[in-house]
Design a protein that fits this description.
Oligomer: single chain
Order of helices and strands: HHHHHHHHHHHHHEEEEHHHHHHH
CATH architecture of the largest domain: Orthogonal Bundle
CATH class of the largest domain: Mainly Alpha
Largest sheet: 2 strands, antiparallel
Strand order of the largest sheet: 1-4
Strand content: under 5%
Radius of gyration: 25 Å
Distance between the termini: 42 Å
Structural class: mainly alpha
CATH topology of the largest domain: Preprotein translocase SecY subunit
CATH superfamily of the largest domain: SecY subunit domain
Number of strands: 4
Number of domains: 2
Length: about 450
């Protein structure tokens, strides 16, 4: 079965694209919104000494701070108004999904359709503001303590208040911008913002790598090996993201008058990696949150248990890798049935008149779907864990001066796949509308 990218490439022509005015307006809007986001990552917070901050960041850019800066598109390095990026919104969304899964009231609200969706989305926004306030305050306090306070011109309560308000405003604006991209543009707005933050750093990262090769710090063979491994990993991710377990679904024959309907068969596709990159994001947030707080507050320099914890959980350390991998596998199964609900799937099949061969509709069908999901998720969780841990392991064993982890690689590959799929859907819809319009015109001429 051809992918959406292959179908779009085979069916694409500039003539049909130029006539798809709605698609072009959506693409232009998406591009404009991403440009606005990139401009915001260059607007610094008030009261920051940019030179002192750059000097301090240069000492920590290979650690966890550099990883967060990678996902923020360089906004942390410049301490811009978008330094928190869209991550508080992602954290709020995942948290609310987990609460909804265990709360009967929110579960019932989710089943109410559009009204319930708007209500849950509103709760997500409120939770985003709360998380942003907490993170923004810790960032303000951390900036005052970073490097003995040299990064802040006038530390104090006024600086903390203005920094927190500015960072919260930046996150709320990005949340609104992501929703506008989803509604008026192409693709998922939140995913595209993260994708733009990751991709914009790639040219700099490649230039740094080649510069190290010219200086002799890294051998040419190692650089070639990295390039080959990157291409192989991208191909492997594309293959696994398209991998599916198809369950046969049959529809019984039924007679209406003199005609017989039904009797067809189709497939229920279940993705090997049903949770996508959500499990890796949750694992990263959970394992890195306490380390980030200690780094900002400087507790890891005071000795004692906090210093030991920070040392053993440094990026690339064995305990860090083991814990990170275990969390990814755990979240892959915890979040699985929030993404794919076997009970709802079985109920929808029953309402449509479909059934699985040898399975009774209802509970038996749901149990079988759950059984299949559990089995294929083992492979999916191992795949995501491998992709996330391999770059971390290689970076910790080499002198690469930038961070590009597996989570970023997954986002950099899967987001374009989803966006191209939506572009293909818009193109097909436009061609279908044009075909129906021609038929109506021909029918009117015959009359």
């Amino acid at each position: 079965m051809a992918s959406a990218t292959e179908q779009l490439a085979s069916q694409f022509n500039w003539g049909s694209f130029s006539k798809a005015k709605d698609l072009k307006s959506r693409l232009w809007f998406t591009l404009f919104a991403l440009i606005v986001y990139r401009l915001g990552t260059h607007i610094p917070l008030p009261g920051i000494d940019a030179a002192a901050l750059a000097k301090l960041f240069a000492q920590k850019q290979t650690g966890i701070l550099g990883m967060f800066d990678f996902f923020a598109g360089g906004a942390i390095q410049r301490m811009a108004i978008f330094a928190l990026s869209i991550t508080p919104y992602i954290t709020a969304s995942i948290t609310l999904q987990m609460i909804t899964f265990s709360s009967p009231a929110l579960t019932q609200l989710k089943k109410e359709g559009e009204r319930g969706y708007r209500k849950i989305n509103q709760y997500t926004r409120y939770l985003t503001v709360i998380i942003s306030i907490i993170q923004g305050y810790f960032v303000a306090v951390g900036l005052e303590r970073l490097g003995g306070g040299g990064a802040v011109i006038n530390p104090g309560i006024f600086f903390r208040a203005t920094t927190t308000i500015t960072l919260v405003g930046g996150t709320v604006f990005l949340m609104w911008l992501g929703e506008q991209i989803t509604a008026r543009g192409i693709g998922n707005g939140t995913s595209l913002i993260i994708y733009a933050a990751i991709v914009v750093r790639l040219p700099t990262a490649i230039a740094q790598l080649l510069s190290l090769g010219q200086q002799g710090a890294i051998s040419t063979f190692f650089i070639i090996l990295i390039m080959i491994a990157a291409v192989a990993l991208v191909g492997f991710i594309v293959f696994m993201e398209r991998a599916q377990r198809r369950i046969l679904v049959q529809y019984p024959k039924r007679q209406v008058g003199q005609k017989i309907y039904g009797g067809d068969s189709t497939h229920l596709p279940l993705k090997v990696n049903s949770t996508g990159v959500i499990a890796a994001i949750c694992a990263s947030a959970l394992i890195l949150f306490p380390i980030t707080i200690m780094n900002f507050l400087g507790t890891n320099n005071s000795g004692g248990p906090s210093a030991d914890f920070a040392r053993y959980f440094q990026h690339g350390q064995p305990l860090y890798l083991i814990t990170y991998g275990a969390l990814i596998i755990t979240f892959s199964f915890v979040l699985l049935f929030m993404v794919v609900n076997p009970v709802d799937t079985a109920e929808n099949l029953r309402k449509a008149g479909g059934f699985l061969p040898g399975m009774k509709p209802g509970k038996n069908t749901a149990d079988y779907i759950k059984y299949v999901l559990n089995r294929i998720t083992v492979l999916g969780a191992v795949y995501v864990t491998f992709i996330c841990l391999l770059p971390d392991f290689l970076i910790s064993r080499s002198s690469i001066p930038f961070y590009f982890g597996g989570t970023g690689l997954l986002i950099a590959v899967t987001v374009p796949m989803d966006t191209i799929s939506q572009i293909h859907s818009h193109m097909v819809a436009h061609q279908y509308e044009g075909l129906m319009r021609k038929r109506r015109v021909k029918g009117a001429r015959r009359k």
